[in-house]
Amino acid sequence: MPLPTVAIVGRPNVGKSTLFNRLVGKRVALVDDRPGVTRDRRVGTAHLLGLEFQIMDTAGFEDEDPASLPGRMRRQTEAAVREADAALFVIDAREGVTPLDEEIARWLRVEDTPVIVAANKAEGRGGEAGRLEAFSLGLGEPIALSAEHGEGLVDLFEHLRPFVEREEVEEEQLDPEDPDRPLHLAIVGRPNAGKSTLVNRMLGEDRMITGPEAGITRDSISIDWEWQGRKVKLVDTAGLRKRAKVEDKLERLSVQDTRRAIDMAEVVVLLLDATRGLEVQDLKIASQVLEEGRALVIALNKWDVAEHASSLFNGVKAALVEGLSQLKDPAVLTVSAVTGKGIDQLLGAAFTLREAWNRRTSTGELNRWFEQAVETNPPPAPGGRRIKLRYITQVKTRPPSFVVFGTRVDQLPESYRRYLLNSLRKYFDLGAVPLRMTLRAPKNPFDR
């Protein structure tokens, strides 16, 4: 049974994202003194004095041309309110009611969603006049809040309880080995690669704000979804530019948010713009994903308008093989976020990779392969002294990690370790999954 949903609405810079972070108990929404930081809807699970509900942070409501970026952000906010069980209308108690607040109130009064007015930044007595002024909005008794300092949460609890209280349901525990658990799938790439457009095409709705402007997405937005009856937690992220070009504080926060999304993902889709080909920044992003131990799918987007498709695909594949030492055969697919072509193949590949990423192989199977691999290509003998490799075992999954035991393993060349990894990947059909291999020698009792 889904949790009830509360949408936070209001004009820019009244503290909506600060309140969102307060209710979910961690700093997940980007917060800055500048207005207009939040653009897409961000959803989290709120916990308020025993109440549990979905809380939705929205973009600041502005009176702009519907075709402009603020106008497209406003449409997202309007959609959020219509989907919610209740709307939390936040004003700035220190500034009092503004003409834009009055316009928002007029809009909310004609919607069917119940509304609670919260006068934020009301710490101490500085905001009492603004709270009283909010009675003029005609939306009932305003409550005084300080999202920054956590004041007024008891009043918020009392006002929200009629809309979100429900019988407790035992929370479902997600077993990492359960094949029915949601696939955590993050979409990453450079700005304007089409990440948000791809997410919208997957969902079949304009859930993310898109447009010709680069860098529209700032927060990493997580969406629960189903594909062919299989659960997916889909994460759209901010574009990653070269580090030298990232000077703005807000963009640095967005980059950190994207990196957290990679850390939490199981499979990461690196989306490339087929009209621009492969760039050095793409290789850096791919290397970062693999270093974090995440399964990687590379998708060439805008394939419907790509020129010289065959040579482009082969060139990108060759450059990836050369530039990514961690993978011998990276998974490369073609998609079109505009037409939807290739999306089912992309998601099918992501589920297959997740299965390999979680796979545990028995020690017996591993050592049958290991003996054959060592016999086919024995390790070198530096200085005329043989390196003996005795056995292998898997120590963990997510990603698959192995330990090889032997003598004088500190002298084993890196090229031989790569040979073992590539042979292991091919023999057990582990695909484009990062693998970890550690070499260990048994303790020598005569070392002292």
UniProtKB/TrEMBL annotation:
Annotated GTP 1 binding sites: 10-17, 57-61, 120-123
Positions contributing to GTP 2 binding: 189-196, 236-240, 301-304
PROSITE patterns: G_ENGA
SMART domains with a match to the protein in the record: AAA
InterPro entries: AAA+_ATPase, G_ENGA, GTP-bd, GTPase_Der, KH_dom-like, KH_dom-like_a/b, P-loop_NTPase, Small_GTP-bd
Keywords per UniProt: GTP-binding, Nucleotide-binding, Repeat, Ribosome biogenesis
EngA-type G domain location: 4-168, 183-358
Highest taxon of source: Bacteria
Role description: GTPase that plays an essential role in the late steps of ribosome biogenesis.
Stated family: Belongs to the TRAFAC class TrmE-Era-EngA-EngB-Septin-like GTPase superfamily. EngA (Der) GTPase family.
NCBIfam families xref list: GTPase_EngA (TIGR03594), small_GTP (TIGR00231)
Subunit relationships: Associates with the 50S ribosomal subunit.
Family matches, as HAMAP family: GTPase_Der (MF_00195)
Protein name: GTPase Der
Organism of derivation: Sphingomonas swuensis
